[in-house]
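User: My advisor, Dr. K., asked me to get a structural model of this assembly before our group meeting. I'm new to this, so sorry if the format is off. These are the inputs:
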Amino acid sequence: MIVENSLDELKKREGAYRIIKNFIESDVESELYDLTGLSGGFIASEEEIDLLQTYIGPAVFEDKLQEVGVNHMGGEKIFALNRTSSGILASILALVSKGDSVVHFLKAHPAHPSIIRACNLVGAVYDEYIDLDQFKIKDNTKLVIITGSTMDHQVLDEESFKKVIERAHNKNIPVFVDDASGARLRTAIFNQKPACDLGADLSVTSTDKLMKGPRGGLMAGKEEYVNMVKAKSNEFGLEAQAPVILAMINALKDYNPQNLRDSISKKDELFMLLIKSFNMFEKTPTGVMVSKESLKKEVNSKRDKCNLSETDLCFLWSMILLKNENIITIPAVSMPGASTTIRFDLSSNDANKLEIKEIYEKISRSFEYLLEVCVDEDKSRKIIYNL
Amino acid sequence: MIVENSLDELKKREGAYRIIKNFIESDVESELYDLTGLSGGFIASEEEIDLLQTYIGPAVFEDKLQEVGVNHMGGEKIFALNRTSSGILASILALVSKGDSVVHFLKAHPAHPSIIRACNLVGAVYDEYIDLDQFKIKDNTKLVIITGSTMDHQVLDEESFKKVIERAHNKNIPVFVDDASGARLRTAIFNQKPACDLGADLSVTSTDKLMKGPRGGLMAGKEEYVNMVKAKSNEFGLEAQAPVILAMINALKDYNPQNLRDSISKKDELFMLLIKSFNMFEKTPTGVMVSKESLKKEVNSKRDKCNLSETDLCFLWSMILLKNENIITIPAVSMPGASTTIRFDLSSNDANKLEIKEIYEKISRSFEYLLEVCVDEDKSRKIIYNL
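Assistant: The format is fine. Below is the predicted structure of the whole assembly, which you can bring to the meeting.
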């Protein structure tokens, strides 16, 4: 085994860093292509950065956020949070007390852990449902939560969405929607309405997911509820700070659902090319991926003398993609313990800089090289650690 | 009464905005001077902003922060939080459970409310002391908190600081220091050591207080404890995001304690000039201030026909300072409910652009004009709302 523990993973990550750093610092014409789908963004002009340095800057950006935020999310009022998880915490702190019940409806388990953690913190009883027939709202329920799209991009259909809201409102219970990726996935790809337009009282989305914003949470909702969450956030320091708000505004202005839709057709095109040569690829909502098990199987079917482990193969391929093809995928740069699945996200900013055929060629060429070196453990080690 | 409620305060704030906006957008040579002491800052180069847009950017900045952070704060490891209040919440979540005791020592009441709120949230028993002779650490205490400098800049002496730490450590209880302004006020002005050098296990400071950083909390401490706080922060979204971390790094590099020390002597110089003509000024650690009561008294002693309320006088003077003298003070631009005390902070970035004599003249001239218009309520109203 080449990468055996967290320390090894850090060594691998540092090796990838050096490659990227050299790239950024060199004057080479060629570009790096970040296809992780995780890079988020920070769009800001020089004048805006100057304005950040004044007392008035933060207030100006908060005002501007209202307009672009409502345009994206619906609702009466917008509030920016440090993260979607902070928004979940603030909402539960504001609306739920010890002994109250919280009911959560989502397309598929598991729920995002921050919801359960926040309920535990206030001492609330937490129930989770994925089946509308079994969905029950206890009498002492103070908050109904809906997850628009799970972490694995499992999207709730609009009919169920509306029924859950209706049943909550029949009991006068507010509805909070965790719409982290959903605010865009549901609307741009599945033609659903923003959560507030479907009747949600509060909704929060992640501005770094499927758009070019910074990591952060954008909340919309009825003014009364937003004000309650805002007050709680300010008490505990959960609100987004001015530089993040500025970058949210520009990312929201930049957002175009067509880019997301395009990534779907590009994904299909790439997938069609890939399945002609490989058995290992699966589709994701905005790209394609190879799990460590599938990668090992594919390598074994083409090369019988490779003794590398599943995860070592992922790290090796990811480093080859970085070094030889200038493509950043998660396993090369990830922190210890992250998933080793190799994803190519076509909604990434950098995906637009490459033709689908180029991406296909980069994938094929790097996989050929992977087959070549994976039988040589020493050479594989040198590549993984960039020695 | 001219400014009667929150709505009026917002109207006043919007009027001030328009003045500032015109200033920023016009090509006039003259400058705005932000003497609020609250503007913080956001120092970042174009290349750094570009790096923010990559997957690797955040990781690069987190690494860089370690070095400059330890240099400023001491300790073994650094962690950046969304706010000092988030750092307090994360530490109490990480180290204290229901029924545990938390003991807080500070120079003077009141404590920062976020400490008490976080204790209430986890269900801890909270005790507060300002007298070392009465200071008691109960047996079930899990955390001892020291406030280095209170919100009113009341600074704890180093001897008491060390004694509290010693008594906590004798009982094997970790010590957390809320050093919001203290990390600079204590070291630069009072020649004390950083909290970690005095033995604290954790210490947090506000990067927008007495330095040119963004609003945020910079934590330092023993690695074991920092790791515990970091894990808790990531669970609830309390950590600082990359754009804020970048600006923290540059503000820490920019920080020079001499600037703070200079502001003290400048403050003394300004105060000496002011007391020759006025009775209303008081010193703050880094500037001078006038409370609403003192302002009303001073106006009454020089003009017997002024019927404006204390707060209206503050708003009026603050707007005159802005419009006629280009000086931003808090009452002109503040949110509803903020303090109406007029402070001139000489550690503000912009204070360096003015001679002390110029500041004195701007203050005198604007006060003369205040005396002139304050007897005319209609005219005062027009100035306050910038009509």
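One thing worth pointing out at the meeting: Chain B touches chain A through 63 residues (CB under 8 Å).

User: Perfect, thanks a lot.
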